[in-house]
Specification:
The complex is a heterodimer of chains A (about 80) and B (about 300). With about 80 residues, chain A is mainly α. Chain A has 4 helices and no strands. Chain B has a single domain, classed as 3-Layer(aba) Sandwich (Rossmann fold). The radius of gyration of chain B is 18 Å and the shape is globular. Classes of the chains: A mainly alpha (about 80), B alpha/beta (about 300).
């Protein structure tokens, strides 16, 4: 899980072009100004590529915070 | 608080990632946004009941995310995901649970998407303002019913026949018409749009056909139906999507002229057009998703 969060942080840095982003399980869209619906889908596609998983549209819409995204990645990847 | 205030408060709490886009829609024309949003949300409340706000806002967010996701996959592949109308009919239009959510989501995009707020303004200012006295109107594929009901609400002397292939559309459009108090002047019938070619020619003073044409394998046939149904001199409001993916978009229009030429081919003079795109698009996008509205008049003298 810690590995997932670390790798996910790299993806966030890349997508939002901001190496200062620090992720915790409690991080939400309210904590990252550029994290709107458009960037969310961009982020999810980058996560798909980085972790070798594929999300459904309900996966994309339902996530409330980074913790839920980490759990979803781990579940999809069979960790 | 107004219903639109309730919507913003709900989005802030439940869907903060979607708030920016709706605020951009309001910024297009705050007075019009407030008026249209309160009206549409009022109809939704009357049609759906107490849970209308969460149900409709959640549906709109799901629909919007589906659209962005489809666009992102289209960017990657260069093609819409599906190309068969029968597939979409089986998987979307014919499935009540899918279609109900889809339609209430689309209902809110009429004012919650900034570029569709521009289409709504075009509809109100350029199309509704041109309707003749006591217009007999036909709406092809009314979906949620919002466009036609808006016309009936604006013009107490108008009547409307709506035709849609989806039973969910008939049910929801009927409930919206009831909510708006116009159901005595509206009839909805379950029927494939292309079957309307069998109807008598020239029965409509005005035709509404919003965001159907990109859902068809043979869009030309639909434009022929619109041309056939209109009386000479009658008006049509037609919208379509260009390089804009969605789970059930199957015909890929790439240029605005494709729609214009198709309309002209079937006896319509294209008097005004509006082509709009979202305020923000995917990073490094190859395709610009666009929504286009055409205001057309049935020709009376050959080519004009």
């Amino acid at each position: 899980m810690a590995d997932t969060l670390n790798r996910l942080t790299e993806v966030f840095h890349d997508v939002f072009d901001d190496d200062d982003i620090v992720l915790t399980r409690q991080t939400t869209a309210s904590d990252i100004e550029a994290w709107d619906s458009l960037m969310h889908v961009t982020l999810m596609l980058q996560v798909e590529a980085a972790f070798g998983v594929r999300f459904s549209s309900s996966d994309v819409t339902g996530l409330k915070d980074v913790g839920q995204l980490v759990d979803l990645i781990d579940a999809k990847a069979g960790r | 608080m107004s219903r639109r205030d309730d919507l913003f408060a709900y989005l802030l709490l439940e869907h903060p990632r979607s708030l920016r886009g709706v605020q951009e829609a309001r910024d297009v024309d705050p007075e019009r946004f407030d008026r249209v949003a309160d009206r549409f949300l009022g109809w939704a409340e009357a049609a759906r009941g107490a849970d209308y706000l969460s149900a409709c806002a959640d549906a709109m967010v799901r629909f919007s995310n589906d659209v962005i996701l489809a666009q992102a996959r289209y960017e990657a592949t260069g093609a819409y995901e599906h190309s068969s109308f029968d597939h979409c009919n089986d998987e979307v239009y014919g499935k009540r649970e899918v279609m109900d959510d889809y339609l209430w989501g689309v209902f809110l995009t009429n004012f919650c998407w900034a570029h569709h707020m521009e289409i709504s303004a075009f509809y109100e200012d350029r199309f509704l303002a041109r309707l003749p006295a006591s217009p007999a109107m036909v709406e092809i594929a009314p979906g949620h019913g919002g466009w036609g009901v808006w016309a009936m609400h604006t013009r107490a002397d108008a009547s409307l026949q709506g035709f849609d292939i989806s039973p969910s559309s008939i049910a929801i459009a009927s409930s919206v018409a009831q909510a708006a108090g116009v159901s005595d002047r509206v009839t909805y019938t379950q029927r494939n749009a292309l079957d309307l070619s069998a109807m008598p020619e020239g029965i409509a003073d005005a035709v509404i056909c919003s965001f159907l044409i990109e859902h068809l394998e043979q869009p030309d046939d639909l434009m022929a139906v619109i041309g056939r149904l209109l009386k000479p001199g009658g008006w049509a409001f037609v919208t379509g999507a260009l390089t804009a993916a969605q789970v059930d978009h199957i015909y890929e229009f790439r240029r605005e002229s494709e729609l214009v030429l198709m309309a002209e081919k079937h006896g319509l003079r294209v008097c005004e057009t509006l082509s709009v795109s979202p305020k923000r698009i995917l990073p490094k996008a190859k395709f610009l998703p666009r929504s286009m509205a055409l205001l057309c008049q049935r020709t009376t003298h050959g080519f004009w």
